[in-house]
TrEMBL record:
This is Cytochrome bc1 complex Rieske iron-sulfur subunit. It comes from Streptomyces triticiradicis. Residues 29-42 have a biased composition (Low complexity). Residues 29-50 are annotated as: Disordered. The keyword Lipid metabolism does not apply. InterPro entries: Rieske_2Fe-2S, Rieske_2Fe-2S_sf, Rieske_Fe-S_prot, Rieske_Fe-S_prot_C. Iron-sulfur subunit of the cytochrome bc1 complex, an essential component of the respiratory electron transport chain required for ATP synthesis. The bc1 complex catalyzes the oxidation of menaquinol and the reduction of cytochrome c in the respiratory chain. The bc1 complex operates through a Q-cycle mechanism that couples electron transfer to generation of the proton gradient that drives ATP synthesis. Its cofactor is [2Fe-2S] cluster. The keyword Methyltransferase does not apply. Keywords: 2Fe-2S, Disulfide bond, Iron, Iron-sulfur, Metal-binding.
């Protein structure tokens, strides 16, 4: 006995496949679906004098944000929003801001200050040697 596909079965299967393909665009594990290469370890990002105290700088190509919450205290975080993988685009008023849905993260520790994101920005490793800030 063979099982014939009905029109309803074909339509439901097609819709389910399309839904799964659309949902798989975002990687819930890392917050980024982009597979472009990251910056190499040791690459200089900027100088210490270029990062404003209480603010930060975004390095889109490297997908890194470097902040200076207090004078001489430098932090680095992923520039990929943990909500849906957009790149953050601004550092102002003590937060790192995502343009897609309004999530904001602390320049001090990457914690969520305003959703819809529920997870903080992951920390990135940097080294500060003299006047140079480099990826670790």
């Amino acid at each position: 006995m063979t099982h014939r596909s009905t029109r309803r079965t074909v339509i439901l299967a097609t819709g389910a496949s399309a839904l799964l393909a659309g949902c798989s665009k975002y990687d819930s594990g890392s917050g980024s679906s982009d597979s472009s290469p990251r910056a190499s370890s040791g690459q200089q990002l900027t100088t210490t004098g270029a990062v404003p105290v209480g603010g930060g700088m975004i390095f889109k190509d490297q997908k890194v944000v470097v902040t200076q919450p207090a004078k001489g205290d430098f932090k680095a975080f992923s520039a990929v929003c943990t909500h849906q993988g957009c790149l953050v685009d601004k550092v102002a008023n003590g937060t790192i801001d995502c343009p897609c849905h309004g999530s904001r993260f602390s320049v001090e520790d990457g914690a969520v200050k305003n959703g819809p994101a529920t997870r903080p920005l992951p920390a990135e490793k940097i080294t500060v040697e003299g006047n140079s800030i480099r990826l670790a």
